[in-house]
Amino acid sequence: MKLNVAFCSILAILNTAYAETPAKRDYAFLTTWPKQPRDDASVNSDAQISTDRPSFTDASNTVPRGTRQIELGYTYSRIKSLSSKLNSHSYPEIALRQGIFTDWLEVRVSQNLNSTNYAGKTETDFDNLELGTRFAITPQFGFLPELSVTPHLQLPTGSGELRAHHNLPGVSISYSWDISDYFSIAGSTQVYQAEELISNSRYYEWLPSMVMTWSITQEVAIWCEVAGFLPTKAAKQSDSYFTDFGILYVLGKNVQVDFRIGGELGGGLDQNIFTGVGLSIRYYST
Cβ(213)–Cβ(223) under 8 Å? Predict the structure, then answer.
């Protein structure tokens, strides 16, 4: 049922993806930095689509009021050791984002499906449904970054081993700097609750990340990123660090295609690798 709703949403978006951009409105950020002109926070209605995909780093801006955005993707990953190999397929990685009430506030819903193969056995399960909001706080002002905050909550709606036994809250703080017309730096610091697989006990995990992006042309950009998964002492897992890079291709400002490949640092890229593709579409409801 959830997948049927998702596919219907995709068809509706494809029919309206190239709708006319709405007129410029008030402000895209809640406030400004001290001494920063308030006009710096005005909406740029001519901007290209900006997505959370495909990196670990969340975007630092919102989908404006009256704007809807759908982000989709597929990721293949492989975890290999001396005695076993696990293959995983993640899809459709769907995130529905909607600007509401004002240009600095969005609501968001995320859902995903995972299919894993281990020791000749394949299991396919739903992830837990994730609900969230994003507040665009400030635009960039010199060395002070563009800033946003995204609280979110995972609900225990998954299936199989992916189903959580508790509501799992989290928050992400995102920041970015446009260094020039062709180069930018962005990062996010995420902290969220997770569960141990067997005991179902809860612990907190930190996810800091940083990404650099180079615009080759107006439509094409390349990026590279480093990220770390840092569970607290209550978890049985150890810290892990990843790097990935990819390409973004924007079609007509409202459609983005992405590709990425990456792996775990320290373990050898042939031990824990992943690659994926994605599609993001923005359209206007007013």
Answer: yes
- Omega of the bond leading into 92 within 30 degrees of 0 (cis): yes
Which long-range CB contacts under 8 A does 39-47 form with residues at least 24 apart? 40/139, 40/141, 41/138, 41/139, 43/103, 45/21, 46/21, 46/253, 47/253
Dihedral of CA atoms 115, 52, 192, 194 in degrees, nearest 10, equals 0
E-assigned strand segments in 232-271? 240-251, 255-264
C-beta of residue 54 within 8 angstroms of C-beta of residue 258? yes
Element (H, E) at 11: helix 2-16
Q: Report how far residue 226's alpha carbon sits from residue 242's, in angstroms, rounded to the nearest whole number.
A: 6
**Token digits of residue 181:** 């017309």
From the CB of residue 92, how many other CB atoms can be counted at a distance below 10 Å?
19
Q: What is the pTM of this model?
A: 0.86
Per residue in 61-82, pLDDT (tens digit) is: 999 898 999 999 999 999 876 4
